[in-house]
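Assess this:
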Amino acid sequence: MPDKKNIAKPQPSEVPASSASAAIDVFLNSARAVGPSATAEGRPRLVFALDATMSRQPTWDLACRVQAEMFQVTETVGGLAVQLVYFRGFNECRASRWVLAPGALTDLMTQIACRGGQTQLGRVLRHVCNEARKVGVKALVYVGDAMEEPVDEVCAAAGDLGLLGVRAFMFHEGGDPTAAAAFKEIARLTGGAYVRFDGGAPQSLAGLLRAVAVYASSGVDALNRLAQQDGDAQKLLTAMGRR
């Protein structure tokens, strides 16, 4: 049976798989065959979570192009294991296996189309809490533009995440004030950072993701060293309240 790792309990009925869903199944099944011990054992772990509702298609395409840089910048210091989490449509929220190769996530992401639906950030945070308890997670990167859930429930999950030592780096596209307030509070509760970015400037998101990857793989000292010559690392440290 294909390895579809749903964060929530399976629904009583499911829409028949499309060709895109079949491609996702192939990827997830292949990742399972490799086995977690062969791909991620002993590596620092980062969850890369994306809002894949309909408004996010341009930023999803951008994330596909720049996410590989998260891996590349950490190769010289031992690498980073990354798990992709996304939500879209009606109650669909999925997570990949932990992988090391940037091409693996790129191949998966290019098969996923955004669909209309509401945000499911609370489910993402609860999933990361579960992963942190099981295998340990250093950081969460979240990219989104909206917040359509009870903020108190989401912040309660963020508080749990903070107690587990997982910093949430909340990347916000656009100017929605509700999302801004919620993302800032999640960042505060976890000791992470809230950063606005322009989806029309891919170099900005790429640089910020590189900076988060350095923190996740090697800690604040390494991020401080990078910030001596990298403006995006400086921006991230400022957002974390360390400058």
